[in-house]
Q: What sequence folds into this?
């Protein structure tokens, strides 16, 4: 996903950053009821901001509710789910009348499926993102002012830097690395830039992190000593995590989020997947998706709590999560609620001829070793093409095993063919992301009932 672009002016809100930072810290120690009251107050502010948007004024009227009647999470169920296509089509009608007062700037989601969603990011949203990163990265020992590197493409595209590999920003203590330009013949330049700037922390989408790790390993290049890596923006499957951590001899902490700031889940060093309940209001809605063992998957529906220029209520973001039993606790001391796993987007599903939506294809490379990269393409309801980046151990027997395992997941009615490709044979988006599944077959979606809110 594209990320909020921080600049020097974003540090010009020290009071707001300090105030929200103190609140986030306090929520980890005070009784649940106390900080839930804080969240309800934020929700009321969000609903009031929605009342200043033409789109929401019309939706409130159609639902027969007044903004003053939406004061708690349970009250939100009086509204229908907000679909991504509605946000895409809504345009300026979703902008608050006073958006300029909040110093809003236009942005857009990545549009992996070819349809980016326009969005406004205001100063409240930038403060939130700043404080959130401090919370998550602090778990790995990061402290404000330390140097870090970030694999990113749009930073270079927006500045017309083309094939430039690195850009050091001394005021942010940040080394930007061009994920779109990364190749076999220049990977040493990336590693050299990280060493030259004494980088100890590295952030990026899972695909560019994996690609950097693979190229460094393939060419037997020395890597800089990192304290931790931070993966975001797409599913970090176990096989990729293992290869990244082996290449850099450092732990990867994964996180899930989106530019719209309607949901946030982060991984702690103990492996728990924590829901950032003070970042957004999270609702988990049943779907017809299932895990390979039959466990139900829920759609993530989020309500923003901080963006005043373009608030979103009950936004179906198109991502899937597997829940844990109520009251589950992590080995760490973080009291935020947990989920079992984020299983990726509904776009990461293959639809079988018998109507099943299979989201578990990411497990195939873990079951059949020898694959350095994979992508599933379904441009026909009856045919699934698999592009595989093979290693030396991916022989004919492994190929048959790979196809057989995938066939077990999708069933016998879907014909499978496998293509061996180089790493650059996998389709990548403009941010460097490699979608697991590319499909034109319609998916299932969240149903509008029976949901539960994260506490």
A:
């Amino acid at each position: 996903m594209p990320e909020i672009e921080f600049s020097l002016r974003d540090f010009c809100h020290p009071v707001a950053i300090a105030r929200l930072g103190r609140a986030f810290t306090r929520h980890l120690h005070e009784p649940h009821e106390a900080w839930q009251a804080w969240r309800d107050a934020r929700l009321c502010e969000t609903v009031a901001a929605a009342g200043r948007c033409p789109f929401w004024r019309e939706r409130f009227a159609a639902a027969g509710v007044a903004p003053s009647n939406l004061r708690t999470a349970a009250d939100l169920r009086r509204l229908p789910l907000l679909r991504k296509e509605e946000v895409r089509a809504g345009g300026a009608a979703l902008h608050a009348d006073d958006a300029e007062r909040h110093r809003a700037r236009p942005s857009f989601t990545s549009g992996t499926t070819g349809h980016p969603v326009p969005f406004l990011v205001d100063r409240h949203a930038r403060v939130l993102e700043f404080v959130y990163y401090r919370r998550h990265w602090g778990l790995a020992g990061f402290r404000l002012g330390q140097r870090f590197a970030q694999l990113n493409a749009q930073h270079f595209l927006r500045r017309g830097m083309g094939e430039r590999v690195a850009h050091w920003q001394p005021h942010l203590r940040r080394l930007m690395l061009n994920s779109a330009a990364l190749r076999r013949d220049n990977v040493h330049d990336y590693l050299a830039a990280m060493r030259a700037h004494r980088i100890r922390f590295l952030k990026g989408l899972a695909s560019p992190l994996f690609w950097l790790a693979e190229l460094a390993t393939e060419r037997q290049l020395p890597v800089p000593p990192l304290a931790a890596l931070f993966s975001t923006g797409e599913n970090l499957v176990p096989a990729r995590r293992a290869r990244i951590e082996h290449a850099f001899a450092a732990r990867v902490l994964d996180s899930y989020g989106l530019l719209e700031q309607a949901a946030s889940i982060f991984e702690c060093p103990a492996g728990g997947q924590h829901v950032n309940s003070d970042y957004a209001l999270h609702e988990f809605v049943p779907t017809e998706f299932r895990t390979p063992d039959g466990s139900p998957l829920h759609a993530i529906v989020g309500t923003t709590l901080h963006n005043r220029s373009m608030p979103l209520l009950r936004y179906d973001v198109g991502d899937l999560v597997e829940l844990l039993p109520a009251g589950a606790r992590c080995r760490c001391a973080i009291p935020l609620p947990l989920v079992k796993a984020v299983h990726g987007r509904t776009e990461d599903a293959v639809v079988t001829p018998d109507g099943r939506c299979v989201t578990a294809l990411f497990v195939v490379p873990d079951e059949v070793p020898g694959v350095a990269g994979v992508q599933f393409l379904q441009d026909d309801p009856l045919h699934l093409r698999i592009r595989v980046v093979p290693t030396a151990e991916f022989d004919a027997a492994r190929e048959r095993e790979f196809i057989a395992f995938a066939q077990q997941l999708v069933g016998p009615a879907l014909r499978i063919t496998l293509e061996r490709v180089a790493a650059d044979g996998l389709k990548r988006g403009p941010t460097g992301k490699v979608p697991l599944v590319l499909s034109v077959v319609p998916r299932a979606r969240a149903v509008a009932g029976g949901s539960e809110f994260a506490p």
Observations:
- The chain has two domains: 8-271, 350-439.
- Residues 8-271 form a domain with the Rossmann fold fold (CATH 3.40.50.12780).
